[in-house]
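Quick one, probably user error.
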């Protein structure tokens, strides 16, 4: 009797063939089977680095709906001086959906904070205590004043959908730190997705495994379908056998479609799911956090509980090896308002959104700093565009893509500095206009990546996160 010649198998195929599916993979992981082979980061070279990094991970706080710079971080005494006068910056005013109203000062008082003397609005009193750790970018400019395209631009560098997000580029360029948690995680607002939803955390034309993993901590199952349903017919043995058949079919299908990353990503997602069955319950269980930490993030207050929980989980994910976490504040444009898009009543809508965001965001900076994690963690606070210095109707503000504020902290960012400036109204950027390309280039630089060299050939074009634009903002790099 002839014996079939032995052929080597990959580590992954070995785990599937002899480990009995998800259960076997999880068991082997617990037994340390990862020691059979190291994890090789994907991307542009050893560890994906072009130069020595100052950071290794990122948290992006995204304010969906367009947070108003003139009510948070961009102090303009001219608005107070000319309150109620017709808004006339000396040129035509380009508004999204209304005629120019009167000059409208912020309903919140402004004070100076920190050694830097930064003026901050009473809407963000907790972040005001952190100004000396933050670099502010008040001359941000967007190329669209429509929520969907502008949101895509801030996340992917393009106003059209289908391009890889910054989290996907970071995952692709640097690879994973650990097998136990996803490299790129998205924590949406519990009320729903912002404009474009999953298109903002897509892998685009990068290998599909680099897309963001959606986690919804407020739901009973934060990761959908992670565990099999409780069913008398779906026993562990039946689950293993079904997954074994599925894997066999997947492998056969994959061999006939070499170079298609979609199925490979699905196979990897099954493997990650197996490990998450062990690691995820611990990550999302906050009972072990002290009362001090829980109160710091506002988990004892229904106003701050949702965003606070997501910010705390973001920190826990970073501790366990996630590279990039995106935390969303604000959902879609349903009524009553569930995001920062305050056309009708800014004081009410921004008041609610600001109160829910301010304390948790400040807590994240404070907590990372006290744990020594802020040194190698970049925190960026972004929004798709800003709002006008004049009124819309009697109490709202219209869209303003010509000047708005983002900020960054940690991971090699200088604190207590401001780069760029808007005009006396906070209507247009007049000093060092800054685009998402520049912020993206700076984040990649701090992670050890040259944004001009991290490219992928797609449809005959060497694509990159920063398109054909962008420069590192050296003035905010420590």
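Nope, works fine. Designed sequence:
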């Amino acid at each position: 009797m002839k014996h079939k010649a032995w052929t080597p198998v990959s580590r992954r195929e070995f785990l599937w063939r002899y480990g009995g599916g998800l259960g076997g993979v999880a068991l082997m992981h617990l037994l340390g089977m990862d020691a059979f082979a190291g994890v090789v980061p994907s991307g542009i070279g050893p560890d994906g680095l072009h130069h020595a990094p100052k950071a290794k991970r990122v948290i992006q706080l995204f304010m969906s709906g367009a947070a108003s710079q003139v009510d948070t971080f961009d102090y303009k005494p001219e608005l107070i001086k000319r309150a109620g006068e017709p808004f006339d910056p000396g040129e035509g005013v380009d508004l999204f959906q209304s005629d120019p109203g009167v000059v409208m000062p912020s309903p919140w008082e402004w004070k100076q904070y920190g050694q830097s003397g930064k003026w901050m609005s009473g809407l963000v009193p907790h972040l005001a205590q952190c100004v000396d750790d933050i670099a502010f970018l008040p001359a941000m400019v967007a190329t669209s004043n429509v929520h969907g395209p502008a949101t895509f631009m801030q996340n992917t560098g393009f106003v059209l959908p289908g391009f890889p997000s910054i989290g996907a580029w970071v995952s692709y360029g640097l690879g994973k730190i650990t097998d136990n948690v996803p490299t790129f995680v998205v924590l949406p607002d519990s009320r729903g997705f912002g404009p474009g939803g999953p298109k903002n955390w897509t892998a685009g034309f990068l290998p599909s495994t680099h897309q963001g993993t959606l986690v919804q901590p407020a739901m009973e199952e934060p990761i959908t379908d992670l565990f099999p349903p409780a069913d008398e017919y779906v026993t562990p043995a039946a689950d293993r056998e079904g997954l074994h058949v599925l894997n066999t079919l997947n492998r056969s299908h994959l061999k006939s479609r070499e170079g298609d990353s979609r199925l490979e990503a699905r196979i990897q997602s099954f493997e990650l799911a197996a490990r998450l069955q062990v690691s995820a319950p611990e990550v999302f269980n906050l009972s072990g956090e002290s009362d001090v930490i829980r109160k710091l993030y506002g988990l004892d207050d229904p106003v701050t509980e949702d965003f606070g929980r997501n910010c705390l989980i973001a920190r826990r994910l970073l501790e366990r090896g996630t590279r990039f976490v995106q935390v969303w504040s604000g959902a879609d444009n349903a009524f009553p308002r569930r995001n920062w898009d305050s056309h009708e009543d800014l004081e009410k809508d921004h008041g609610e959104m600001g109160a829910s965001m301010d304390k948790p965001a400040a807590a994240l900076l404070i907590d990372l700093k006290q744990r020594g994690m802020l040194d190698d963690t970049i925190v960026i606070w972004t929004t798709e565009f800003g709002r006008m210095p004049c009124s819309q109707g009697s109490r709202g503000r219209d869209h303003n893509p010509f000047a708005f504020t983002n900020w960054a902290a940690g991971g090699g960012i200088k604190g207590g500095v401001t780069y760029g400036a808007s005009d006396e109204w906070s209507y247009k950027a007049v000093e060092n206009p800054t685009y998402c390309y520049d912020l993206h280039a700076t984040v990649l630089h701090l992670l050890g990546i040259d944004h001009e060299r991290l490219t992928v050939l797609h449809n005959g074009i060497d694509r990159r996160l920063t398109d054909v634009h962008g420069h590192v903002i050296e003035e905010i790099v420590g």
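The CA atoms of residues 380 and 408 lie 4 Å apart.
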